[in-house]
Amino acid sequence: MKKNYHLHWQIHLCLIILLLLFCSSSQVSAATKINLKNTRIKLSAIKLTYNKKVQRPKTRVTYNRKVLKEKKNYIINYSKGCKKVGTYTVQIIGKGIYTGTAQKQFIILPPKAQIMNIYAKISTATVIIKRQTTQTRGYQLCYATNSKLKNAKTITVKGNKNNTIFLNDLCARTTYYLKIRTYMTVKGKKYYSKWSSTGHCTTNNTHQGATPTPTSVPIPKLTFKYGAENVTLENRNPYNIQVSNNIKNIDISNPTVAYSTDESINGNNCFLKTLEPGECVITITDIYGQKLTSTVSVTQKLDDPHTQTSYTATSETVDSALPVPTIKSIDYGDGWIDVHCRGTLSQSDSYIGYEGYLSYNNQFKYSIQVSQAVNVVDGAGNVCFSSLYTGYSYYIKVRSYTLHNNVKIVGPWSEIRKADLPTYDKKGTTPAKYTYEIYGLDKQKADIYTDCSKPLFIKTDNPDPNSFSWIFNRNDSRISAYRSGISRFYRDIPLEDNDSETTLFDKVKGGYIGYMHFSEAGTYTVEFREYSLSGYTVANTVTLNVLDYEQAKNAWMIDIINRTTTADMTPFEKMDAISAYLKEPGRFKYLTRYNDDVVSLAADPIQPFFVTYRWDSSTSPAILGEFAELVGGFDDIHYCFGDYPVGSPSWSIWHYVVKLTIGNETQNYAVCPMGSTGDIEEIKMIDFSDLSNMRKLG
Predict the structure, then answer these.
(1) Chain segment 333-343, per-residue pLDDT in tens
(2) 123-132: string of b/e by CB count within 10 Å (b at 16+)?
(3) Burial group, residue 43, by CB count within 10 angstroms (0-12, 13-18, 19+)
(4) Contacts of 85 (CB under 8 A, 6+ apart)
(5) DSSP state of 676
(6) pLDDT per residue over 389-405, tens digit each?
(7) Cα–Cα–Cα angle for 27, 33, 34, rounded to 5 degrees
(8) Cα 90 to Cα 108: distance, rounded to the nearest angstrom
(9) Residue 14 and residue 20: Cα distance in Å, rounded?
């Protein structure tokens, strides 16, 4: 019988298509790597003003007018803090086909100053400003006789406790224009706020009169220069009183409504701050025994998170039946303290939020910072305090509160907790208390490579993740350190409940997990620093060697070429041999899959693929194309990924295929393993008490 070659060829083609369909995967990737340096990166703002909150501008990354997606195409890491005045860095790390890192910086400026009043005389003027006590080291005032402030004179006032600036040697009958701004010095660099609006005053007329006849000096009348008999203010605002005579004594009828920020009386100024809704009478007695009163009414704006209704509380009462919050834990860092209190803050609770007080003394006098929490994260209401000085001890107490019409109802205070806020920027005198070691978690016990995120186990007996940090090459910009937080990068790391999204590490049994990303190869020195009020102490030093990913990958590829090919082979024959080697049973597996979903495991990671021998329909064609470039001799290397709409039947057949062409001859190559080779039946959690499967680094 005559053989039907046409039918035989059709059957052969159908078998090839079926095999390609069976090996296909839904993993989407581009075949060509793109460095982030070739993209356009823009921050939503590069200058922000301090507002007591963490501020992180949004990042927009585009490539060829296409907006890239965060977490899919890149990861963003911000400098720690982002609350206080200073310069901060945004690091963008490429992901998928986007490689490399890029950095942008933004600045947080001090809070803006405000001119409250100006009192002018013949040759002098007194400028009353709204005092800024947080993130401010002083003021700068400029003044001139023209509204555009050309050739203006400048006065710098150090310190943030005075709200009065005196101008001398002015000309009589002259109008002066002035504006003011704050400044803050951070690590030797001065940061200035935006200028206030321009104010003006006119000095008085000169006059000459006869020499007065000496007479007995009458007692000067006590009057307000700044302040009033009746004042209504919102809570947490300063209230500065200046009177005509020097003050002997100040009495505040209700210190929960307003309190004095002066530990001693000085001159004719009185500095106060409003606290809770209600009314109090401030009685000022001068050195002559005269009295002057100022009635202060304080309001407070509060939101009911359950009804989404805003109220203005005008009074406050105590209800001992409200629950006393339990302080579960306290986190702290450079200039901030977060207090975590157990609770649900649900609609069925008798309270709607927590309110915390913080002061540098346990009597809560002279200085009180107030913070409130109305939302719950992981079963805790978080009361946050910011803009704190380091190297000091602070005292904290918390209570619950609710609202009824315009009345704020508060419960009893919790126990007072003390928190030491360490000094971070200088060496201290306290000796180290704990030990620190670093382990890699992958079962391959692989080296560390650039552009590959690496989870590391920090074995330590230190129970407080806030009290230590690791410093790489003195905060080398080529390194990113971050934590997984609620995203949980790896499914096989059993995290413990450490109630924190603000610390650098994730808590596990026997220590912590930290994540590192290196952009350049080299030797890095890791310092483990413990912090105390006096400063930091280096508890241990570990040296890490980081290998270059591209160099290691190329060396691996060249080794395979030398092992599988000979000089007399054609380019196609060489690629046939390389592909056959890569497709040998058991050599490569697909990415780890659990319940049909791709999962990341720290003990069996994906990267680098030439160590883990796991890849997908994204990496495998890209590497085949690189093999073809090393082999040489091809007129065209074509990746089929973009030839068809993603998800279409044709795309499913061709997206992991590389077409190689020499002259009129084209051959197709694909080495992606079947998806089932990555399937696992269960996720085995890492046992941190067993270090035998880990590699000690350093």
Answers:
(1) 889 999 988 87
(2) eebbbbbbbb
(3) middle
(4) 50, 108, 109, 110, 135, 184, 186, 191
(5) G
(6) 999 999 999 999 999 88
(7) 120
(8) 13
(9) 10
pTM (2 decimals)? 0.63
Query: What is d(CA 376, CA 388) in angstroms, rounded to the nearest whole number?
Result: 24
Phi/psi at 523 (nearest 5 deg)?
-105, 125
Structure tokens at 164: 């009065």
CA distance 639 to 655: 8
Burial of 2 (0-12, 13-18, 19+ CB in 10 A): exposed
User: Residue 606, Cα to own-chain centre: how many angstroms?
Assistant: 28
- Quote the tokens at residue 659: 């077409």
Q: Which of 101, 126, 113, 81 is nearest to 37 (CA)?
A: 101
Q: Which residues contact 152 (CB under 8 A, 6 or more apart)?
A: 142, 143, 144
Q: Map residue 641 onto helix, strand or coil.
A: helix
Q: What is the DSSP string of 299-333?
A: EEEEEETTTTEEEEE-EEEE-TTSPPPPEEEEEEE
Note the pLDDT of residue 566. Answer: 96
Which phi and psi (to 5°) does residue 550 adopt? -65, -40
In the chain, DSSP finds a helix count (H) and a strand count (E) of 6, 51
Task: Classify residue 123 by its DSSP letter.
Answer: S
Q: What is the dihedral of CA 573, 575, 578, 579, to 10 degrees?
A: -110
Question: Residue 616 burial by CB count (10 A; 0-12/13-18/19+): exposed, middle or buried?
Answer: buried
CA distance 361 to 418: 10
Contact, 182 vs 99, CB < 8 A? no
What DSSP designation does 679 have?
B
For residue 540, pLDDT over 50 is answered with: yes
Dihedral sign for Cα atoms in the order 80, 81, 82, 87: negative
Closest CA to 577 of 563, 589, 587, 590: 563
What does the block give as tokens for 516?
């590192």
527, 538 contact by CB (below 8 A): yes
- CA distance linking residue 339 with residue 140, whole number of Å: 36
Which residue is it, tokens 């963003």? 76
Q: How far apart are CA 318 and CA 330, in angstroms?
A: 26
CB 631 within 8 A of CB 576: no
Question: What does the pLDDT look like over 612-624, one tens digit per residue?
Answer: 999 999 899 999 9
What are 391's two structure tokens?
Answer: 């190297």
E strand segments, 463-596: 468-472, 479-482, 506-508, 511-518, 522-532, 535-547, 593-594
Around 190, how many Cα atoms within 13 Å sit in the side-chain half-sphere?
A: 11
CB 660 within 8 A of CB 636: yes
CA-CA distances (angstroms) from residue 583 to 28, 137, 632, 674? 21, 67, 21, 10
Measuring CA to CA, which residue among 521, 390, 506 is closest to residue 456? 506
Torsion of CA 47, 57, 531, 370, to 10 degrees: 80
Mean pLDDT on 55-67: 90
